[in-house]
C-alpha cells in the first residue's frame, strides 16, 4: 500500500476493511473521501469500483490524482454524502455493495490554517467544508448571546456555554471576530484546562463546525440513504469521533437491526414494526488497537460501527 502522510492516516483502516470485506466486481462508496485512505485500501483489496464523494473541492482535486492510478475504478464526485443517492444516480448507479463514512472534519482540513478549523493555528474563522454558506465568524458575530450559548451547549456539550457566550458577546462589541486564535483566546479566558491535554476551546470549535456544516443533519440523511442504496449482504462502516455522532449511528443501527423503533430505553419496544434491514457485525463499537494508538493520536476518540444489509425493504420515514 502506498505510504500516507502521518497526519493524514485514515483511522481504523484495518477495522474498516474488515467490516467492508471488499470483493471483486463490487461497487463501493467512500462517502467522506478526504485524503482517500479508505478508497485506496478498497481498490487494492479487490478488483472493484469506488465512488469517492466529498463536499470539499480540494479533496476532489487531490482525489483526481489517485483516480489516475486506478483508471475507470475510482470515480470522484463533489457533493455531500447525504445526497449520495442522487449523486450516484447521476453516474447510473442505483445499488452498491459497501459504504464507508468517516464523520466529521478531516485531518487534512485541520492542518490547513486558512480553512479555520483549528484553534491551534492562526487563520480566518471559516470552518466551511464546501466553501459555501455561512462562516463560523458570521455565526459568532451575528447570533444572539442566548443562541450562541445554546449552540455551544447542544453541539459542543460544553457546560460553560453561557459564560463563553457572554464573553464572546462582550468581546465582539469591541471588534468583530475574524480569526481562530481570537476566538480560542476568549474561550480559554473562561474555561479552565481539564488536565487531560484537551484545549479549552475544543468543544466550542466542535459546536461551531457542526452547525456551519450541518453535520448531524447530514449524518441522519446519509444513514437513511445508505439503507436504501446497499444491496442485500452489502456492508456499512461508520467511524465517528464524539458522542453526538455515535449516538445517532447507534440509534439508527439498533432500531434497524431490531426491526422496531425504540424512542427511549425506558419505553418498551413494540413487537410490531418493519423487518430488520441490518444485522450488526458487533454489538457496541470497535476501537483502535494499541499499535494504531501509538502512531495516530486522532484514533483515540474514533469509534467504528458496522452492519450488514438484510434483504428487507428500507424503512419509510414514518417507520
TrEMBL record:
SUPFAM superfamilies for the chain: Putative methyltransferase TM0872, insert domain (SSF81799), S-adenosyl-L-methionine-dependent methyltransferases (SSF53335)
Catalysed transformations (reactions): cytidine(1402) in 16S rRNA + S-adenosyl-L-methionine = N(4)-methylcytidine(1402) in 16S rRNA + S-adenosyl-L-homocysteine + H(+)
EC number: 2.1.1.199
Record's signal peptide: none
Alphabetical list of InterPro entries matching this protein: RsmH, SAM-dep_MeTrfase_MraW_recog, SAM-dependent_MTases_sf
Compartments where found: Cytoplasm
BP GO terms, sorted: rRNA base methylation
Cytoplasm keyword on record: yes
Keyword entries, A-Z: Cytoplasm, Methyltransferase, rRNA processing, S-adenosyl-L-methionine, Transferase
An MF annotation (GO) of this entry: rRNA (cytosine-N4-)-methyltransferase activity
Binding annotation for S-adenosyl-L-methionine: 36-38, 54, 81, 102, 109
GO CC entries: cytoplasm
HAMAP family: 16SrRNA_methyltr_H
Cited function: Specifically methylates the N4 position of cytidine in position 1402 (C1402) of 16S rRNA.
Family: Belongs to the methyltransferase superfamily. RsmH family.
Matching PANTHER family: 12S RRNA N4-METHYLCYTIDINE METHYLTRANSFERASE, S-ADENOSYL-METHYLTRANSFERASE MRAW
Name of the protein this chain belongs to: Ribosomal RNA small subunit methyltransferase H
Lineage of origin: Bacteria, Pseudomonadati, Pseudomonadota, Alphaproteobacteria, Sneathiellales
Amino acid at each position: 500500500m502506498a505510504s500516507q502522510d502521518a497526519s493524514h492516516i485514515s483511522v481504523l483502516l484495518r477495522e474498516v476493511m474488515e467490516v467492508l470485506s471488499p470483493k471483486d466486481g463490487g461497487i463501493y462508496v467512500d462517502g467522506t473521501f478526504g485524503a482517500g485512505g479508505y478508497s485506496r485500501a478498497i481498490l487494492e483489496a479487490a478488483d472493484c469500483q469506488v465512488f469517492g464523494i466529498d463536499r470539499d473541492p480540494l479533496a476532489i482535486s487531490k482525489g483526481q490524482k489517485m483516480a489516475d492510478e486506478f483508471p475507470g475504478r475510482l470515480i470522484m464526485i463533489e457533493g455531500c454524502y447525504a445526497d449520495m443517492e442522487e449523486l450516484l444516480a447521476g453516474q447510473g448507479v442505483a445499488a452498491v455493495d459497501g459504504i464507508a463514512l468517516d464523520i466529521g472534519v478531516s485531518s487534512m482540513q485541520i492542518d490547513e490554517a486558512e480553512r479555520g478549523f483549528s484553534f491551534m493555528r492562526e487563520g480566518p474563522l471559516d470552518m466551511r467544508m464546501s466553501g459555501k454558506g455561512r462562516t463560523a465568524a458570521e455565526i459568532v458575530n451575528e447570533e444572539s448571546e442566548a443562541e450562541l450559548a445554546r449552540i455551544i451547549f447542544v453541539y459542543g456539550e460544553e457546560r460553560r456555554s453561557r459564560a463563553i457566550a457572554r464573553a464572546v458577546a462582550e468581546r465582539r462589541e469591541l471588534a468583530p471576530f475574524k480569526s481562530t486564535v481570537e476566538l480560542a483566546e476568549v474561550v480559554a479566558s473562561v474555561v479552565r484546562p481539564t488536565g487531560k491535554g484537551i484545549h479549552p476551546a475544543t468543544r466550542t470549535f466542535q459546536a461551531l463546525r457542526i452547525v456551519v456544516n450541518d453535520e448531524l443533519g447530514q449524518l441522519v440523511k446519509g444513514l437513511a440513504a445508505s439503507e436504501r442504496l446497499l444491496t442485500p449482504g452489502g456492508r456499512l462502516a461508520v467511524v465517528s469521533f464524539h458522542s453526538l455522532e455515535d449516538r445517532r449511528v447507534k440509534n439508527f443501527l439498533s432500531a434497524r437491526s431490531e426491526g422496531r423503533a425504540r424512542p427511549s430505553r425506558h419505553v418498551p419496544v413494540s413487537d410490531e414494526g418493519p423487518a430488520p434491514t441490518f444485522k450488526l457485525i458487533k454489538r457496541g463499537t470497535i476501537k483502535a488497537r494499541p499499535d494504531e494508538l501509538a502512531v495516530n493520536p486522532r484514533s483515540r476518540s474514533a469509534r467504528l460501527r458496522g452492519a450488514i444489509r438484510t434483504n428487507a425493504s428500507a424503512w419509510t420515514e414514518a417507520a
